[in-house]
Each structure stands twice: as C-alpha cells, then as structure tokens.
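Protein 1 of 2
SEQ + STRUCT:
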Amino acid sequence: MFTKLFDMLKLPHNKRLRTVIKSFLITVFSVLIFVGVGIFIWNRTIVPPEIVVPTGPIAVPPTNIEPPQTNNTEQYNDENIYDEPTPEYVWPFPERMADDRRELFYTFLIIGLNEGTNVNTAMVASYCAATREANLISIPRDAPVHATRNGRKMASSYLIGAGGGRGTPGGVAQVQHDVLNVIGFIPDFYVVFDYDAFFAIIDAVGGIEIYVPIRMRYRDPYQNLDIDIMPGLQHMDSATALDFARFRQANRNSGYPSLPDGDFGRIRNQQAVINAVINELLRPSNILQIPTFVNIFNDSVHTNLTIPNMMFFAMELNHVMGTDDFNTYTFLPTHTSGDPHWYEFLNPNAILEIVNRTINPFYQYIELRDINIVRE
C-alpha cells in the first residue's frame, strides 16, 4: 500500500497532495516529539520523594515555654510568655532506628488552625507507596502536652511556638515537638492550613457531599458564628463544610441536639470532610485539574512538600481510594480532668498499638521509652 502511495506522489498532478501529506507527517512527527519530551519531563518530575535521614539531633522549641495560668486555654495575651527561649536538640525519632527506615513509606503532620492560630485539627497520616495503604490518626486538641500543664494543650502548641516573632516556623516546630512526645517520632512532612486554604480547596473541587447525622444548630454572636445544617445527605460549599467541621454541640436549652460524643464527634466530622475532599479530587473532571489544585495548595498552605512531591502524592491518591485502603483512627482518652481545663488524658499503651500498626515508618516498634505522654 505504501509503495503505491509513494508512486502516486511522484506524479506531477499530485504535487498538491504531496504537499498536504508532507505537512501532515511533519505535524505528526512534531506532536510525537512534543509528547515524548512531555512524558520524559513528567517521569523525571513525578518520582517518589527521597526522605533525608538526619545524622544528628535537630533544634526545636523547648518544652518549658509556659503560658499564663488561666481558665481560658484558647487565648494568650501576655507577651512575656514569648521571650526568646534557648532551643533544645532532640532526635526526630528514636536514635536506634536511624538505619531502620521502611522504603517508600511517608508520614505527614496535618495542622489546621482557627482564626486565633490555635490548633483546631491535629492529625498524623501515613502512606506506603509499596502497599498503596494510607492511614490517618487524629490527636485530640485537648490532650495535655506539657508536664506542668498550666493550659498547655495540643490546641495551644502552635500559638506558643509562633510567639515572640518566631512565626510559622516556630509554630510548626512546637507542634512537631509535642507530637514527637505523643507518637515517638516527627513526621516527614508538615501541612499547615487555615480557613482561607480550607475555603480555596473545597471551592476548587466544586463542593463536597457529606451525610449529616443530626440537625446542627448553634449560634455564637461573639464569634459571629451561626451554624444551621439540616440532617441527611448534603452538598456543601466551603462555608457549610467549615460549619460542619466545627460543630460540636447546640446551645443550651435550645431544643436542638448535640453530638453525643462531643469533641470526638467533631473529629469524626473533620475526617469525613477529608474523605469527601479526596473523593471529589478523584472525579475524572477534577483529576484533569490536578496541576490547578497543586498551585492552590502551594499558594494557600504552608508546607515543606515540594511541587514534585505534591504531584507524586496527588497521582498516588487514585491507588489509595481504588483499593479502599484509607483508614481513619482517633486517639481516644481514658478520662477527662473536667473543670477548669478539660484535659483529655491519653493511654500510652493504646497509642503505641495504633501507631505501630499504622503510621510507624520504621521496622522496629516504637516503645514506651520513646514517648512522653502527660498523665494525670
């Protein structure tokens, strides 16, 4: 067939046809080169992140930063507590495990801040690119993280670290230090987002669908907060999703129900929001916009993830949800202190069981000697 075609092209009256076919072949050849170069660049860019294992201790804020004694653990107005401290140096994981790292296993610290830069969400996630398994663990924001307490909960970690002009790096370092005491290691990557980032991500995916178990009704004029979400399956925009993630209880004597498990119900709602966002990201129409989401993430979120890192994990999401290997957990407390601070005390043995089964990036187990959980 090709011989006859070439013979036809030799005829004088086929000059125009010859020109058309030559143009077509040049175009096809150019497209193939363009696609080939694109695939080459993509493959060079979308590669598993390399975890750099530290050769020694790292500097973190000290644990002796004390907030003032107050019944309101959400606010710290005394600037004297932000005097520049002398950093201490700690290993970000048990030193004996320096050469014991699992391959293609990544861990993440997720910090969600409210308007006052208090920690509203504290989570640790893991992803194994070899087994395509992901896990997400929520740490109660009311868990005490300082031996002398005096208001030091997980909720106040970021604010304490960021004070005195230390800003976001100091806030992240303090949360990392407090999480280290709870789980025995500092996660590889950190992600810090506030309400603006929350709005941008959910609006970018076109909203999310979540089942609402009860009528959620709560008013707080001091926070300019007015939550009103009907029960049932709801398509939520970013503002409604934020209300859903913040709701814990109704106003007293309002006649509306509260979540039966209070703050832990709120943690469950936050996990539901994350699941819903991931489901939306995996819709075909949104998969094509992954670069757009990466740009939003890069602009609106404070993280040590690079753009190639983000692209790699974004592409890996499809594998996780495809096998339904996305598991969520919560560190449940053994009891609460009650008034005035409402500390939620954690069980070290129960935490180690979950950590070693899900997010531990090492072959060896994290042990009791590796954590420093505050007990009553």
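Protein 2 of 2
SEQ + STRUCT:
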Amino acid sequence: MAITITENTTFKHLNADRSYVVKPGGIGREKEVIVDVAITATTTYSTGGITVDFSGVGATMKQVYVCEIIQGHGGFLCEFVPAAGNDSATGKIKFYGIDEAAGGGSITALDEIADTSALIQGLTLTCRIRGI
C-alpha cells in the first residue's frame, strides 16, 4: 500500500509544541500532531480498514489512541480504530458511505464500504492524532 503520512505545516505551532501535557498515571507525556494522510491510486481498501503507521511522525509516537479526521474525507464517514495496546504503527482508518462500485445507493453509517480502491484513491485526509 502506498500511503504517505506527513506533518501538516499549516499547524506548525501545534506540531512544534514540546510542552506536552503529563498524562494521568505518569506513563508519559501526551503529544498532539496534525498530519496529512495521502491515499494513492495504488492503495487497495479492504473491509477492516486501511492500516496507518503514525510511528514516524511528530515526536515519534509510540501509541496513538485518538485520530480525529478534520478535513478532506470526500463525503465519507471515516473512523479511526486504534490497534491493540494503541500501537502507533497498526491503527486503521475505516470508511463508510456510498459504494459506487456496488451500483450506488445509500449505505447506513453502520455498514462499512465494500472492498474497493476506486472510492478512496487519490484522497488526502488531514488528521489530528494524539498519543504518547
């Protein structure tokens, strides 16, 4: 899969903020970064979501427990599903919406799109990720 994740420089102040909040329980400092997730035409989507590796962005995230998609979702409902133990390298983004490949029509928010790359290729999502 060809997914590229880069810091969004529009939010330089937030991305460069090193005064992270101490997380309750003393296990680390919470970090927050704004990133762009570029999904290319060669990406194949399958039910269960697209795996996104946030470990190399920001101040090297070890765990990502929140990923808020703030723009660029192309009309789809998107959901981030944290990995086991909130591992930053294996969380997934799921898409819900109209499945053009299946002949169009409405799909409820509870139904994930069918296996297809045509619906999401060439899409860039801007996400706010939070973790430690």
